Amino acid sequence: MPMSADSLDPPICDVFGWLMSSHAFQLNKHFYPTEPDFFIYDANGTQLFTPPECFDGPLGGQCMGIKGKPRDMWSLGCVLFVLAFGHCPFWAESNIELQLMIIQAELQLPEGGPGSHEFRQLVTSLLSRDPTARPSARALRQSPWLTLLLEPCRLRPSGLSQETYLALADVTLSDAAATSGTRLPAADRLLMVCPREDVSGRNSECPYAAEATAERSLASGLQTAAGAAALAVLWTLAPVMLACASLAGTRGRRMLDRPRIVRCAGAEEPAAEGSSGAEASKQQVVTPWEVEAGEDGVDYDKLIETFGCQPISAAQIERIERLTGKRAHRFLRRGLFFSHRDLDDLLDAYEKGEPFYIYTGRGPSSESLHLGHLVPFLFTKWLQEAFDVPLVIELTDDEKFLFKKDLGIDEARRLAWENAKDIIACGFDPAKTFIFRDTDYIGQLYPVALQIQKRVTLRTAQNTFGFTLSDNIGKCAFAAIQASPSFAISFPDFLKAGMRCFIPQAIDQDPYFRLCRRVADDLKWPKPALIHSKFLPALQGHQTKMSASVQSTALYMTDTPKKLRKKINKNAFSGGGKTLEEQQKYGANLDVDVSYQYLKIWLEDDEELAHIGTEYAAGRMLTGEVKRPGAFSALAVAQRRLV
Predict the structure, then answer these.
(1) Where are the domains of the chain?
(2) Is 481 helix (H, G, I), strand (E, B) or coil?
(3) Given the DSSP bridges, would you call strands 433-437 and 391-395 parallel, antiparallel or unpaired?
(4) 23 against 444, higher pLDDT
(5) How many CB atoms within 10 Å of residue 458?
(6) What's the angle, vertex CA 138, arms to CA 198 and CA 67, rounded to 5?
């Protein structure tokens, strides 16, 4: 049975008949001749070399029918990039940021290094985001740059004809299996091209090549037998690439010395040595624990594309109004809730009379909720009333204890109850609402959490959330705890078994429930439907969300009306002109004006909001008028607090 090692490193391969075995500390993978392209269904390996279609999201969905060879070409392009320029084409602090960067980024070749047009064209084609646009192994071997460099350098091993060498470029183990008369299997041919004594990565003059290739697993990209042939070309090419890298001043450079990529809009290209992140424009970062927008604010269209969710349509809003007999909430009408997963399926079931329940929650990190926290709760209250359904609210005191270094367990539990007062003040139906604190209810959640934990690998948790070896193990385990309320079986005394779940949430929480939805089919439980909200911008600007961790950026429910007005007047970022003349001439940028964005959320009257927007954008209204106390009277209503 043909096999391939998890690490395609020629110096550690031996050949025994038709078996290609590896002495690496990874399991080998079988290739079945009946499978086209002998695709390995495995996600192990180094993400630095993984193509975008291997990650979750629309790229992965669109490329399910793409065979493995284009993935090999991407990984090969990454290695050539490393050998030429001394660093990886994409790099980030965490796995989840790296995945987002690979999916979103457009390749930028650094200045310096091999400067020929042919070489840059070759690397660019290998690192195309479109798998079908990447060259085949044969096309790679026949590319102008390789044709010019390989033959003069006589890199082809002696005794191997040009014809045989070219044939090797596209060889697969299926070729070897089909030609039973030959005594030269594909693995033998691979080793002929890459003899042990000729592996330049082991040369003392090339320490960087050894680290960049031999010590880096390419398994996530080299998923087919064709990958072996592609890597053969790489190993043959390595001496030339190292010579070019030496000329570019990267000779002997080690991986730990590579320039780090700052979080910027141009994060596809590493920051120059000695430059600071402040000198570059910001890159969008959205995780469950961090939100940092680009210069133009959060790009929600890009988040939809990256996360693989769907935008909410006008037809869906009209359908909600028809099914509930109520006008859509202003958060829906104005696009604050903007994307979803399986909303149509949930509405189909509701229309058939099938019940569902709502699940939302709060991670207590402050004495009081700020207005950004209120967005999902106020919308959830409307959903509960409109659909007349039960609601469960999770207070994740365990999460905050695990993720906040200086927070003790007793303090986390206390903050949970303080936050519960603000949540209750929103006006949920007491008979149909169950609020619980994780540390109190864990006995009921734990059996469900165990089922989820058993089906989620550590690698999946790392890839989804970006956990590192320095993170405590409780962080990994918590993902299953937060996912457990998504299944009605967690609440046997409150809900009917098998009920569907509907989860209103901010878009940064989506990774938790993507993971939850993955295991639902295996557990034979209904997948939760999700609806995502945008972020309430911080007072200082639209480049980050309002956060309880930075009190100066937030408006709290405990703020007095006087304090609230003072914060808005003093700190709210203005999109208006710097002077009266500029404002009257150019008008205001409504997209970045924080006061106007708050009005979009809290001002109920659509006509008044439209009037303010028109006048302010045209320069006929000043920033001070937009910030007038009367316009924010809705905030006082939102401040109700249970005594």
Answers:
(1) 3-257, 296-538, 559-638
(2) helix
(3) parallel
(4) 444
(5) 10
(6) 105
Q: Structure tokens of 105?
A: 């980024």
Beta bridge partners of 545: 537
Rounded Cα distance between 614 and 616, Å, is 6
Of the candidates 268, 348, 374, which has an alpha carbon nearest to the alpha carbon of residue 529? Answer: 348
Instruction: State how far the Cα of 156 lies from the Cα of 165, in Å rounded to an integer.
Output: 8
What is the rounded CA–CA span in Å between residue 258 and residue 87?
5
Alpha helix (H) residue ranges in 86-143: 95-104, 117-126, 137-141
Q: Which residues lie closer than 8 Å to 282 by C-beta, 6 or more apart?
A: 263, 264, 265, 292, 293, 294, 295, 543
Euclidean distance between CA atoms 215 and 209, whole angstroms: 9
Residue 433 structure tokens: 């609402």
Under 8 Å between Cβ of 361 and 482: yes
Residue type, 116: S
Cα-based torsion angle of the residue sequence 12, 15, 20, 22 in order, rounded to the nearest 10 degrees: -30
Reported as a single tens digit per residue, the pLDDT across 108-126 is 777 655 556 778 888 888 8
pLDDT digits (tens, 9 = 90+) for 363-397: 998 888 888 888 899 999 999 999 999 999 999 99
What's the fold here for domain 559-638? Tyrosyl-Transfer RNA Synthetase (1.10.240)
Q: Which fold has domain 3-257?
A: Transferase(Phosphotransferase); domain 1 (1.10.510)
CATH number of 296-538: 3.40.50.620
Which position has the higher pLDDT, 249 or 519?
A: 519
